[in-house]
TrEMBL record:
It comes from the Bacteria. Its cofactor is pantetheine 4'-phosphate. Residues 500-575 form the Carrier domain. GO terms for biological process: amino acid activation for nonribosomal peptide biosynthetic process; secondary metabolite biosynthetic process. This is AMP-binding protein. Residues 482-504 are annotated as: Disordered. It comes from Gordonia mangrovi. Keywords: Phosphopantetheine, Phosphoprotein. SMART domains: PKS_PP, PKS_TE. Residues 482-500 have a biased composition (Basic and acidic residues).
Length: 864
């Protein structure tokens, strides 16, 4: 049922508008007594029931806590009982603090000690003995709710909000979000922190029905269907939650009743709005809503269904009710529209100050008279010519790099504009002289190297704005409020002060590396991979060396000399001895039992370096690559012949077994074939590790007959593995000519296919540009897998699969007839071999090659 008055539910003919939170709540509850106030999947309560309960429990609480003005802290969940407990405290005359259940104990203890609050659970409030103790009516400036800051940059601070302040917040909800009787308001924010409290107040003081869903406990599984069943008209969450939720939805997931969705707490991008229109809300209004613990609501940005979505980060919008926003310079003078400065807010509805901290209150809040206050926010922003407010980061975050003032927020914007970025945060290093970027990516889409990120930034940012350190992550750590927990961000690998280069060769190399890696300086003893380079960056650098020095250095040679000092020595030695076969190189030095890893089709041995460096212990790791890939020589024309060549390289490097052999992708098929050759010669292979091998359909049919149910997704897998663009074959994803429509004309596709057949037929005999050479060998590798007739192998085998590998693991039982273990690691075919997920892959390799039989049993237990 809805309120009897379709207008504002607190208004009556004989009364003025309420000026306190408590009066507004009671007026609304009286008018909407039969309407549902709060609903969760576990139950509901009407406004009338909530009013009566809160009044009765409020008197009991006033009797139990007889110190006037002492805050009462309540442990709250997103459920009906918690909301009733909060209303009871408000009706007791005590200020209320909402404690989130996921708060770390240290932070909760700090809040309780700082505030001096009495702590109650909802059940404890419900069990208090009844009392007839009268409760004094609060005034407009009396404390109502204490909001504590997130503590993401220090210990939480408590802000005291007045009774009239929350009335103003509720009026914002009515004016900007249109909240009123009949609305069914889905609150997907925990009610234990600021934005959740805002939703609670704006909904209940406007007569809406609150629909509570705790995403942290229930996840988003079933959320869309629940909102549909409940006919939600509005929904409120964080941008990060919205992105993860929308990623699981299809285009037909629209909620017919949903007229508005708002986000708060973080910047929101135009791509988020576009995705929302394609899924949940094709015709509703999106609202980006911002504020802080010191001021409550700051601004609202409404984007209707007919409005174009801007690129990049959305402006925070037009100022909220009674929030006069000024942009000032360092002297406190207003700047012109469009210019940046500190955001200052003047209002009669700001927080009353910091709890028990008069010095900080005096530093941030200034009384203006007539009940109005000025707040210096410490945020940088600008007002455009339409009156829209744009946030530009924190004033105290700005640092000077090479004499230039840099705003980390501007760098974050550039990072978030990149296709691979899910989220990003930029901060200063400990000395506040360099920028550090933590970039969250979606590994199943693409995992860039740090050098790749810096190079991309160089197309839009000045050199001094490019972070020296880039940390690639799968997600950013967040605190219980959903904000980035900066204290939990992993520190980049400590970089020593660069040792100056010596001589003209090292100096020239330093400048080349700076260009390729996107860094301002490089020391002569710094490692290329540690600086963020990958195999494509190495190939780019070595190709440039060929042009400048007319010296041909293979990636295998470079892996053995990965610093400027050692590479310079190679360049100065024009008559150096080359690797005898051109197919094997040391990718990690060590003295322990060696491991032989065979690279994927079209990939140099250097592509195995990230994995090799993550393997535990002091094992030496050899990398093997295709004959002719980097030095002229006819490519092997079968997996069996590639395996015979691998056996020659392996036995030349180590006189006798037992051998540890592994291979990635195409290399896995070569590795198991090499193991059968060694076995037939009476040699022992202690372990064969196959890293994400994927069957071509022809080979799968040859091994199994009909393609099993688990292998019907092979077209998608071909698309995942394939790349005929000018890029590294173990990298990005592009469509094949035979995988679907293409923009190329038919004759062009035919010519490309004929040209590729010719190049594959002569693979290794003609020197091609590096990326084309790799693509030719990749295409050859697929052909060899299609034609392969494998020999069953009876020794111990471990298959390490990416999460997206579509092959039925049981297929390998037909080829590995001995001791078979199958493990699954996070990521897809590419990202499992790149940071940060390569650490999981290396750990699985470690368990497989361990001499401890118990470790293999543990691996089986984990993967079963």
């Amino acid at each position: 049922m809805s309120c009897t008055d379709p207008g504002r539910p607190w208004q009556r003919d004989s009364m003025t508008e309420p000026t306190t939170t408590l009066a507004r709540w009671r007026a609304t509850a009286d008018r909407c007594a039969d309407a549902i106030a709060v609903c969760s999947p576990d139950g509901s309560v009407t406004y009338g029931e909530a009013r009566d309960h809160a009044d009765e429990r409020g008197r009991a609480l006033a009797a139990a806590v007889d110190e006037p003005g002492r805050p009462v802290a309540v442990d709250v969940e997103s459920d009906v009982d918690s909301v009733l407990a909060v209303l009871s405290v408000l009706c007791s005359g005590h200020p209320v603090i909402l404690l989130d259940p996921l708060l770390p104990d240290e932070r909760r203890d700090h809040i309780l000690a700082l505030s001096g609050a009495r702590r109650f659970y909802p059940a404890a409030i419900a069990a208090l003995p009844a009392s007839a103790t009268p409760v004094p009516e609060p005034g407009p400036l009396d404390p109502s709710i204490l909001i504590f800051t997130s503590g993401s940059t220090g210990k939480p601070k408590g802000l005291i909000h007045s009774q009239r302040g929350w009335v103003n917040q509720a009026d914002d909800g009515h004016e900007f979000l249109g909240l009123g009787p009949g609305d069914r308001m889905a609150v997907l924010l925990p009610i234990g922190f600021g934005a959740g409290v805002d939703c609670l107040v704006m909904g209940l003081l406007n007569g809406a029905t609150l629909l509570l869903w705790d995403v942290r406990r229930r996840t988003t599984a079933g959320l869309r269907d629940w909102l549909d069943a409940e006919a939600a008209t509005t929904a409120h969450c964080t941008p990060s939650l919205l992105r993860s939720w929308l990623g699981d939805l299809d285009a037909d997931a629209a909620l017919p009743a949903l007229r508005l969705l708002s986000t708060c707490g973080e910047p929101v991008r135009g791509a988020d709005v576009t995705r929302l229109r394609r899924t949940l809300m094709p015709s509703g209004v999106f609202c980006s809503w911002s504020g802080s613990s010191e001021m409550g609501n700051l601004a609202f940005h409404l984007v209707g269904p007919d409005r174009d979505v801007p690129d990049g980060v959305l402006a925070v919008g037009v100022p909220a009710r009674d929030k006069h926003v000024r942009i000032v310079d360092d002297d406190g003078n207003d700047v012109a529209d469009g210019q940046a400065g500190e955001i200052v807010v003047e209002s009669g509805h700001l927080a009353l100050g910091y709890h028990n901290d008069p010095e900080l209150t005096a530093a941030r809040f200034e009384a203006l008279g007539n009940g109005r206050t000025r707040l210096r926010t410490g945020d940088l922003g600008r007002l455009d010519d339409t009156g829209m407010l744009h946030l530009m980061g924190r004033r105290d975050d700005a640092i000077k790099v090479r004499g230039y003032l840099v705003e980390p927020a501007e760098v974050e914007t550039a990072l978030r504009a990149m296709s691979w970025t899910v989220d990003a945060v930029v901060s200063a290093n400990a000395a506040r002289t360099q920028l550090v970027a933590h970039v969250a990516v979606a590994p199943d889409t693409w995992t860039p190297s740090p050098a790749e990120v810096r190079t991309a930034l160089a197309t839009t940012l000045a050199p001094w704005m490019i972070p020296r350190d880039v940390v690639i992550m799968t997600d950013l750590p967040r605190n219980e409020r959903g904000k980035v927990d900066r204290a939990a961000l992993p520190q980049p690998e400590r970089r020593r002060d660069p040792e100056p280069v010596r001589g003209p060769t090292e100096s020239a190399l330093m400048h080349l590396w700076c260009d390729v890696l996107g860094v301002p300086d490089v020391g002569r003893d710094e490692d290329f991979i540690s600086l963020g380079g990958d195999s494509l960056a190495a190939a780019t650098m070595l190709a440039e060396l060929r042009e400048r020095w007319l010296v041909d250095i293979s990636t295998a040679e470079f892996v053995a000399a990965p610093t400027i000092a050692t590479l310079a020595a190679l360049l100065d030695d024009a008559h150096r001895e080359r690797v005898a076969s051109g197919t094997i190189s040391t990718v990690r030095a060590g003295s322990g039992q060696p491991v032989f890893l065979i690279a994927g089709a079209g990939s140099p041995a250097a592509s195995l370096v990230p994995l090799a460096r993550r393997i535990d212990g002091d094992r030496k790791v050899f990398g093997l690559q295709a004959h002719g890939l980097e030095q002229r020589g006819r490519a092997d024309r079968s997996i069996r012949s590639a395996a015979r060549r691998a056996v020659r390289d392996i036995t030349a490097a180590v006189d006798n077994g037992p051998y540890l052999i592994g291979g990635y992708s195409f290399g896995a098929f070569v590795a198991v074939e090499a193991a059968t050759i060694l076995r037939d010669r009476g040699e022992d292979c202690a372990q064969v590790v196959l890293i994400d091998p994927v069957f071509e359909p022809e080979l799968l049919h040859r091994v199994c007959g009909d393609v099993p149910q688990g292998n019907r997704a092979h077209k998608a897998t071909r698309r995942l593995l394939g790349d005929r663009s000018a890029a590294l074959p173990d990298r990005g994803v592009t469509e094949h000519a035979d995988d679907g429509p293409t923009s190329q004309p038919a004759w062009q596709r035919w010519w490309n296919a004929v040209a590729m057949r010719g190049l594959v037929a002569t693979a290794g005999l003609v020197r091609l540009p590096t990326t084309l050479q790799w693509t030719v060998f990749w295409d050859l590798g697929r052909q060899l897998i299609r034609r392969h007739r494998p020999t069953p192998y009876a020794g111990p085998v471990t298959v390490i699969r990416a999460t997206t590998n579509p092959d039925d693991p049981g297929v390998w039982k037909r080829l590995a007839t001995g001791d078979l273990t199958v493990a699954t690691v996070p990521g897809d075919h590419h990202s499992m071999m790149r940071e940060p997920l390569v650490a999981e892959t290396a750990a699985a390799v470690d368990r497989a090659i361990s001499a401890d039989a118990g470790a293999r049993c543990a691996l089986r237990a984990v993967t079963s």
